[in-house]
Amino acid sequence: MTADIRAINITEPWAGQRLDKALAALAVTYDVPLSRARLQALMGAGHITIDGVPVTDASRKTKLGETYRIALPPPEKAEPEAQAIALNIVFEDKDVIVIDKPPGLVVHPAPGNPDNTLVNALLAHCGNSLSGIGGVARPGIVHRLDKDTSGLMVVAKTDAAHQKLSAQFADRSLSRTYQAVVWGVPVQPSGSIDAPIGRSMKDRKKMAVTAKGREALTHYKVIENYTVASLVECKLATGRTHQIRVHMAHLKHPVVGDAAYGGRTVRAKNADMLVKFPRQALHAVGLQFIHPRSGKIVKFASKLPEDIAALIKKMRAAGFS
Q1: pLDDT tens digit sequence for 265-276
Q2: Domain 4-72 has CATH 3.10.290.10
Q3: Whole-number Å distance between alpha carbons of 253 and 131
Q4: Is 29 or 149 the better-scoring residue by pLDDT?
Q5: Is the pLDDT of residue 78 over 70?
Q6: pLDDT tops 70 at residue 281
Q7: Cα–Cα distance between 232 and 271 in angstroms, integer?
Q8: What does residue 89 show for φ and ψ, rounded to 5 degrees?
Q9: Is 216's pLDDT higher than 60?
Q10: Are 77 and 136 in contact (CB under 8 A)?
Q11: 308, 181 Cβ separation under 8 angstroms
Q12: Which of 21, 30, 40, 91 is in the most buried spot, having the most CB atoms within 10 Å?
């Protein structure tokens, strides 16, 4: 594989700034999130040039109109190893596996989480037959849940199943339903959040509602009102990264326990149980898709996990509802 070459032009207001700072900010607009540390490493390896000459000084001051070429080396293929990790399998046949993922389990290997992931567990469960499906690092994975989001996921066991399930995600015939405890109570008890989602210009590790983002649509309804918080059900019409978390925060009702999008803000007295909840209170409760072999619609449901159920019980006992 050859390097991915990106040409970045210095525009206002980044002229006269440190090179690493300017490139880090401008790279986001090219959909290439790069930290300053990563840019400095690329400079050290001679992968950033101007007029064909390598640039090694990260503190160099930029000039308006300059064009820097960044050669991004191809990612090294990660060959996940099989690891015997217990799985809560809701359904399995020759084509698919439906998993009820616990919170804390990362779906696939990535920097910072090289092993002990769902993929490692699936390779141990299914054997080598899974390794060629959907890419080396993400065998069988059609969609993902964040590390601290729990609930239902479908995994493909064959290439044909993977292709058909991926097509269902694309045409929105695959349905996913979530429940979340969010801060406050939406004014409208039900509605739709139609707001595009893209990478945040303020923090490249986060997503945000932005005019230049991709279409994102979430339907929601309030299931139970606790005054300081509420249980909402969300159905995804699209599948953007962190979609429910971003959309509920955009609605000013972030998911409880969601440190990234405002879910740990102290918003009410006597609400320590909410403030201290250790993860985003978000669970995939429903999954529906067309079985890739039979062509029949299959549906699966999952109860709220113990930690979210216990939180709701405490709120009811405290008289919040």
Answers
A1: 655 666 788 988
A2: yes
A3: 40
A4: 149
A5: no
A6: yes
A7: 18
A8: -90, 120
A9: yes
A10: yes
A11: yes
A12: 40
The CA-to-CA distance between both ends of the chain, in Å, stands at 58
> Token pair for residue 22?
């300017």
Whether residue 95 contacts residue 293, with contact meaning beta carbons closer than 8 Å, is answered with yes
Question: How high is the pLDDT of residue 5?
Answer: 85
Domain extent listing, the chain: 4-72, 89-171, 175-298+311-317
Instruction: Quote the mean pLDDT of the chain.
Output: 89
Cα–Cα distances (Å) from 138 to 63, 128, 143, 175, 281, in that order, read 42, 13, 10, 21, 26
Quickly list DSSP for 22-82.
HHHHHHHHTT----HHHHHHHHHTT-EEETTEE---TTPBP-TT-EEEEEEPPPPPP-PPP
CB-based contact 207:233 (threshold 8 Å):
no
Give the Cα-Cα-Cα angle 124, 130, 136 (nearest 5 degrees): 100
Report phi then psi at 99, rounded to 5: -110, 145
pTM comes to 0.75
Structure tokens at 122: 């699936």
pLDDT in tens, 98-136: 999 999 999 988 767 788 999 999 999 987 677 666 666
Q: Are the CB atoms for 270 and 276 separated by under 8 Å? A: no
Closest CA to 176 of 224, 102, 238: 238
CA distance 314 to 3: 54
Catalytic positions = 146
Intrachain domains 4-72 and 175-298+311-317 with the same fold: no
Query: H helices of the chain, where?
Result: 19-29, 36-44, 118-126, 159-171, 243-250, 272-275, 306-317
Superfamily of domain 175-298+311-317: Pseudouridine synthase (3.30.2350.10)
| CATH numeric code, 89-171 | 3.30.2350.10
Hey, what are 29's tokens? 């607009």
